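Example 4.3 (complexes with small molecules)
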Amino acid sequence: MKVHLVNPSDVSFGVGVITPRWLYVLAAATPAKYGDPVLIDETLEALDPETIQPGDVVGVGIHTANALRGLEVGRIARSRGAIVIFGGIHSTLYPNEALELGHAHAVVKGDGDAAWGQAIDECLAGTNKQVYEGGQLSAGKFLKARWDLMKPGSYMWASVQTVRGCPKHCSFCSVWRTDGQQPRQRETDPVIEEIVQLRRLGYRFIALADDNFYPVTLTDIALAEKQGNMEKVAELRSLRAERFNLMERLALLPKDSVFFTQITMEAAEDTDFLDAMRKARIKGALVGVEAVTPEGLKSVFKDFNMAGDNLVNQLRKFKEHGVHVLGSFIFGLNTDREGTFTATAELAKKADITFAQFVTMTPFPGTVDFDKWEKNVGDDVLKVQGVPITRYWLIPGHLRPKLYMPHPTMSPDEIRMRTQGVWDNFYALGEIWKRASCVKALKSKLGFVLISKLYRQMYANTGIATDSARRKTANRWARVTAKLCQRIFLAPPMPNLQVPGATNNPLRVLGN
Ligand code: SF4
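Answer. The structure with iron/sulfur cluster bound is encoded below.
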């Protein structure tokens, strides 16, 4: 009997951009008595159904973007006689889909670090429940990923998580509702140990795949002080101190290490934090700018962001302190007008950001926006091949509407066309070359151009969708470029690298 874990995808580039971390964490959560699981990442290669034997266990993790393929994988596995267990954010929100359309024996909701093992045991014993509540585990219970199972040279970036949950409440985001608003921050030791293990394998580019790397702002602390809530102040200060401790330890890693993370714009006001990021070689961060006007920000509950010139200054501050910004912008908000597109393109350039993504407003399940939209359309909902568009992930990709939420003044085509125009403007060769001044050597500049073009090719129209973001738009050009780019990312393995600054033993060697 084998355990298989499948990360579903319709399209493969042969090389992955970021490791699908969940595969390697659930590999660690698989009880040792079942042996090492077989890991299949369909962003690299499609599942071969023949490898599944009757009695095997197949785990399928899905999010909204790959749910349709994931449900198909579940049916294939079940028809091969396997026990099928679903997990991931989409199954957490819609367990019945996994049971009915994915032919699952069981679904694990929430964190799988503990519940996955129990689900396998009970499914094999025939005593399983249909739904396992994994809940939101405390950070001490997060498992270290099994990077020893990763095929060498498969990905450009590896991914390590340092904190789950986000205290904000943006209306288009499901993170705060599914991962919680209380930041669950991991201890520094296991994080550094995972990173060292990855560096030993030759991975020097590492995404700190956190919901929000800056979960405690200076404003949060000042507010708690003003309220006289000293217990809260102490808790927030301790979380902040742990962040600095992590960054000090990251700074001790090999000098060619590069980290990237996701962060809120408020970090611009905390220059000590930005300086610590620079020293830790956290060279870039995805910053959710979303909208450039106060009305737009208010409409997505993100009015803690700045607008106009203040926004430009705030974004510039990141670069002034050595942190490059990948700015994320949303188009199609009710407050957007024709001029919003040009204004956004201009602002992105003026703010000196290094990369940008421009996504169209999509109601994702689990968000406030989705609930509102679903309620508004009610029973009078448009259907495609009998599927209501409020379940759009079940509609075959080529038949799906491109935009779902009606706009008061613009048609979906107009929004798409103008959004595409902003991508074209920001990623025009001349503009990329100007931004390439962020690196010195000619070879690095050419690498920067290649990566910018690849980024635009892969994510225009879709936005970055975590570690398995692949869409049908992937083409041969992107495949070739991805192979070329991968050479830039990987480094010679360092099998003898030691864990720096470990508790009680500064030169401790990893014991595996
Ligand atoms: S968009 Fe970012 S800041 Fe807003 S809730 Fe989601 S993770 Fe938090």
